[in-house]
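ABC transporter structure dump, as promised
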Amino acid sequence: MQIFRNLKPYWKSVIIIALLLVLQAYCDLSLPDYTSKLIDTGIQNYGIENCSPKQIPEKAYKVIDGFMDDDEKAVWKKYYKDGSDGYYYLTEDGEKHIDEVDSACMKGLMMYYYPYQMVNSDEDNEIKAGLDKMGITLDEMPEEMWAQIGEQMKPTVDGMLDSMGEDYMESTAIACTRICYDSFGYDYKAGQMSYLKWAAVKMLGMSLLMAAAAVLIGLVASRVAASVACGLREKVFNKVIAFSDAEINKFSTASLITRSTNDVQQIQMVTVMMLRMVLYAPILSIGGIVKVVGNGAGMGWVIFIGIAAVVILMGTLMVIAMPKFKVMQTLVDRVNLVSREILTGIPVIRAFGREEREEERFDEANKDLTKNTLFVNRVMTFAMPILMFIMYAISILIEWVAAHKIDAGVLQVGSMTAFITYTMLIIMSFLMLSMMSVMLPRASVAADRIQEIIDTDVTVQDAAGAKKLEAPRGVVKYDNVAFAYPGADENVLENISFEAKPGQTTAIIGSTGCGKSTLVQLLPRFYDVTEGSITIDGQDIRDLTMESVRQNIGFVPQKGILFSGTIASNIRFGAPDASDEDVKLAAEISQASDFIEEKEHGYDSAVAQGGGNVSGGQKQRLAIARAIARKPKILIFDDSFSALDFKTDVAVRKALGEHVNDSTVFIVAQRVSTILSADQILVLDEGTIVGKGTHKELLQTCEEYRQIAESQLSPSEIAASLGTDSERQV
Ligand SMILES: Nc1ncnc2c1ncn2[C@@H]1O[C@H](COP(=O)(O)OP(=O)(O)OP(=O)(O)O)[C@@H](O)[C@H]1O
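structure tokens r here:
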């Protein structure tokens, strides 16, 4: 899956996280054991951990020896030495092999313990009666009688060994050990305290280790997720920058923004959760199950009920909420789209008094998203209480079953506590997995949406082996060019052939929507021609690198677009190395210097985002200055003079004529007056050239041009325009 693929470059961190998770899980799984031991050994057994007595009265030693088989006897003999003071002592070697000694003496100890239990019991029994008859105490009982009792006891003890859990058996044996300790005044309190203190230190250590691991995991996981997100944003951004208009239109700007922000954020969030949970849950549940099996409480079936309940619950919630989860991103897209459109169009909305309708439109999108989110959240709110209920119900069930087992003497309280904790851990880990399975689909939708951008083929891109356009003269030739917008059935341009030379101005005029802007936009390769070719100095622009072609073009778009910064930074946008003089000259040519110098900070005056603090005409003049400052070989004015008044229009073109005399200039215009002095005028009608020539020629040869001219100029103006040639203008 895509989300996992994103983690590939960070495999080292993922391994570190996995190791830390194992450590965290180890601590997490050990703690219930410690709690159980704290109760069973620390409290119930006075801190005595092993049943093998460290010191045992000689008589008890011998009696127990009498109960043992040959193998057990050998161990007993090997690890105990006679202290010649009436006691036997466990040797150092014995301490090292304590488990071996424990299992050898456990049965014997229990048989030794049994008569004491009988004697202390309130009820009458054989042993009590026998001792009374002989007039002796249990400690004075002769060895033959012990042997006799041993024979009788053997089947009972064997039966107990079969039915008891290991922990419980050990605990019972330790109770027997205490009889040996009673005989020499063992200091139980000191033993218990030292055990409890040591256990507390160990538990504290474990908890600290666990906390440290968790913090480290959080830290590394967050870093990885942030890097994944950063990488994705970069990839998306780089791709979008390379997109031609066709791809941008396909996705829509709003969706591109949601994809590179909200979608990436989804992935970042899920990546953190995934790194912390997806690995942790299986480690914890498998570890928990192993522990539970070893615990010997024999209540595994309760865990399965718990897991089944959680899986059914989460499964049901998922089925209900999943469809809504999946459309969430599309709805976020819609809200972004509507708010973007409304925010950028506020002046028009106000001017047309459409506030209410637009508010409704926003409300609609907003409500859809809210409804969807609320539904999902409502469904999910059920999860927590039901889960809590399941957990508590399972705890009660365990306690109920365990109570019977404790009563029957086959389970200890501590083991029950540990069992409950392990069960909770296992259920929690299944919960984590189910939560992930809820979150993953949404994130995977987000990941797919991002991948869709990354995988989109850019329609306009450098061909393999594309050459650089070096020191061009600037001869532009359109050869039989046809063009259709992607997805459109009909061509917008057809049979376009003309040549534009350096030092000359080619003007394009025609009715609205006839394809003028499209024609000039093909030159910087905003789109590629569908048929025919465009060449610069005889080289097809598709065989040249886009960067080198664009570097030689100064493009002034129909709508002046400025960037936040200063006036100077905007003029230098295409020529970062332009000197102050160049910037000033460009501003003078574009007739922008007057209004710039009037400003308090002149060229350093701030320009707001999108050029919000300058007028439309000023914006257009700055856009013209920006193109000129580049000193390009080819200058394109896409209807850039319409926002200027007649006087400024003339002044700009005059200044251009004076200073820019070796560039190939294209002017898309609506006004005939703007193009009167052009060297070549192309008259476009429905995407084809219907007239080509100078103003004078076209007035005579082209009906369409004559109609346009007559609709804009008075007969006297037309007559004047045919008169003397004025000084050079573009
Ligand atoms: N991105 C686009 N996708 C599809 N069709 C488009 C796109 N841009 C423009 N068109 C269509 O192509 C045709 C030519 O548009 P173009 O902008 O080139 O016209 P124009 O002559 O510059 O118009 P105007 O003088 O009004 O600016 C129009 O019919 C327009 O609807």
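The chain has 28 helices and 15 strands.
lmk if u need the other ones
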